[in-house]
Amino acid sequence: MSILAIELKSISGIPLHPLIVHIPVMMVPLAFVGAVLALVRPPWRSWALSLTAVFAGISLLGVQLAMQSGEGLEEILDEESALIERHSQLAEQARPMVFAFFVLAVAAAVIFHLISRAEARDEADGGRVPLMRKLLVPVMALSVLTGALSLAWVYRTGHTGAESVWKGEGEKSGSEAKKPADEGGSPDGDSDGD
User: Please, how many CA atoms are within 13 Å of residue 194, restricted to the half-sphere of its CB?
Assistant: First the structure.
């Protein structure tokens, strides 16, 4: 299912997927660091929670764009391999984790903002503010947990993607290099015949 109705295959003949995957690869770790900083350093929460929510949102968008561009790259390459299939499965698993991370990061930022606004208006006596104070740290802790899971899955997805490129290239090079002489290859493994 495609959320965005655009085709992401290539630009000027260069596949977009290797470029776009760097969005979640960079933003998920940054969002995770922001979530950890917000949890362990209360004075930094005013900026760290908002920044974490923004980075997590960019991460979610990046994961979706990377998945779409990966599908486009599969169409261009027209290849099937176990590594590419595993890479695709891990990307499908990463998306809901990054989504949960985004939702919890936004929830933590909103809760903190509402508490700060109530305190600025001197409305801290209301029943809502103490409840929000009790919710803030658990929501931030869940944000850190989902951020760690997102980070692990984005890493695993990227690793299998890199393996599919590098091991796939090695297998192609090895099979082409060992082509028998009667199939157009020379006995020494190269195709020029010398």
Answer: 1
Q: Are 53 and 102 in contact (CB under 8 A)?
A: yes
Quick one: tokens of 92?
């499908």
More confident of the two residues 47 and 14: 47
CB 38 within 8 A of CB 108: yes
Contacts of 126 (CB under 8 A, 6+ apart): 118
Spatial distance between the Cα atoms of 59 and 146, rounded to a whole number of angstroms? 13
Strands 10-11 and 14-15: antiparallel
Name the nearest CA neighbour of 39 among 101, 108, 93, 87. 108
Q: What is the dihedral of CA 151, 4, 110, 120, to 10 degrees?
A: 130
- pTM to 2 decimals? 0.75
CA distance 73 to 9: 6
Lookup result for tokens 């103490």: 130
- Amino acid of residue 123: E
* Exposure on the CB side of residue 118, measured as CA atoms within 13 A: 17
Indicate the burial class of 160 (C-beta count within 10 angstroms; 0-12, 13-18, 19 or more): buried
| pLDDT (0 to 100) of residue 159 | 86
Q: Which alpha helices (DSSP H) does 41-191 contain, by range? A: 45-77, 82-120, 128-177
φ, ψ of residue 11 in degrees (nearest 5): -135, 120
